[in-house]
UniProtKB/TrEMBL annotation:
It comes from Fructobacillus tropaeoli. It is an enzyme of class 2 (transferase). Belongs to the class-I pyridoxal-phosphate-dependent aminotransferase family. This is Aspartate/methionine/tyrosine aminotransferase (AspB). Its cofactor is pyridoxal 5'-phosphate. Residues 32-379 form the Aminotransferase class I/classII large domain. It comes from the Bacteria. CDD domains: AAT_like. GO terms for molecular function: transaminase activity. Keywords: Aminotransferase, Pyridoxal phosphate, Transferase. Its EC number is 2.6.1.57.
Length: 395
């Protein structure tokens, strides 16, 4: 029997997730410095680890309310209210998930009918496309490569007029992979267009705590009745392995989302929930020392790229730099493969992030300063050799 005939065509036709796929392809190169994966190199703060250990020692190791204990949902709601001025009823408008990856799938399964279209401003984190496909939806990319990687209300208006089947728009702010984030006036204008065309807004704000020289703003302030917000602790508290995410949404939307969550995963580990309460309360400002280091690393990489003539977006948040590939390469994959094989530096090809990413590459600076300095030295040497070879060919 052909086993592939059993699997849905929509699943078989899905492209592999580009970040992890490329990262795995280059991982066996001896001595490679991988700047591919967006994982903080910091340890989870000790007080949060202690809360998890305490939960185990106190035998808090059983099922909880599937949506999360009321204590953790209240802590999460209080956190975003204090930090970003968005307000949710912990009993009816907050659901905890196994990371934001689960949240993404829960929401698209709850929202989309077969054939419903979703606007994805690109470049964009590739997991969204897969979740939309699994849910039976269709992706409408909005290529932002010529718009400084920022969606404008004029552009959204144009896209909404041309694509009446679109039901949803997803924003990531700060952005992965560009680090771009939005101001209040920009979000308010986008919210007005979304309301005019009855678009549901999904706002992935997992990097909300990692912003530089500004306070994070959420579009939920301007269109709360139609906005679903993702957040979590992976990036803000260096808790990627704990797998804790949160969905915030008005009760009218959350009822359906919660049903999908229960069938998808039932509940988040009771131990993790105890640690999350500690993170949201005692650890409300745990990001501050980490953010200071991230900003220093950002500036280090930007300075190195400028020195060798590579254009890059200056990130306003997150911990990525999105930079142009040199002009003598035909594709981002070609450049990133050569950089990995010849210079032993791993970065992600821009085409992993949709049509708006081709011609660029993503550097994650969520790694040690020593690694970044060595990687930038190798990149500089690689480009110097590359430039000499090109001049030799031209001669």
């Amino acid at each position: 029997m052909n086993q592939n005939s059993i699997i849905r065509d929509a699943i078989l036709s899905m492209p592999p997730e580009g970040i992890s796929t490329f990262s795995k392809q280059i991982e066996d190169i001896p001595g490679i410095i991988k700047l591919t994966v967006g994982e903080p190199d910091f340890d989870t703060p000790d007080h949060i680890k202690s809360a998890g250990i305490w939960a185990i020692q106190e035998n808090d190791t059983h099922y909880t309310d599937p949506l999360g204990t009321l204590a953790v949902r209240q802590a999460a709601a209080d956190f975003v209210a204090k930090k970003y001025g968005i307000f949710y009823d912990a009993k009816t408008e907050v659901v905890t998930t196994i990371g934001v990856s689960e949240a993404i799938l829960d929401v698209f399964l709850a929202l989309l009918e077969p054939g419903d279209e979703v606007f994805l401003p690109s470049p964009v984190f590739p997991v969204y496309q897969g979740a939309i496909s699994i849910a039976g939806g269709k992706v409408d990319y909005i290529n932002l490569a010529n718009d400084n990687f920022k969606l404008t209300p004029e552009r959204l208006l144009q896209e909404a007029q041309e694509n009446p089947r679109a039901k949803t728009i997803l924003l990531t702010t700060p952005s992965n992979p560009t680090g771009v984030s939005y101001e209040d006036d920009e979000l308010e204008a986008l919210a007005a267009v979304a309301r005019e065309f009855d678009l549901t807004v999904i706002s992935d704000e997992i990097y909300a705590e990692i912003t530089y020289d500004k306070v994070h703003s959420s579009i939920a302030k301007f269109i709360p009745e139609r906005t679903i917000v993702f957040n979590g602790l992976s990036k803000s508290h260096a808790m990627t392995g704990w797998r804790f995410g949160v969905i915030f949404a008005p009760e009218s939307l959350m009822e359906g989302i919660a049903k999908v969550h229960v069938f998808n995963s039932y509940d988040v580990s009771s131990i993790v929930q105890k640690a999350a309460i500690e993170a949201f309360t005692v650890g409300i400002n745990d990001i501050e020392p980490m953010k200071k280091v991230y900003k220093e690393r950002r500036d280090l990489v930007l300075a190195a790229l400028e020195k060798v003539g590579i254009e890059a977006v200056t990130p306003e948040g997150a911990f990525y730099i999105f930079a142009k590939i040199p002009a003598n390469y035909e594709s981002s994959l070609e450049f990133c493969t050569a950089l990995a094989e010849q210079a032993r530096v791993g970065v992600v090809p821009g085409d992993a992030f949709g049509p708006g990413g081709e011609g660029y590459f993503r550097i994650s600076y969520a790694t040690s300063t020593a690694n970044l300095e060595m990687a930038m030295d190798r990149l500089t040497d690689f480009l110097a050799v590359d430039d000499l070879a090109l001049k030799s060919q031209e001669a």
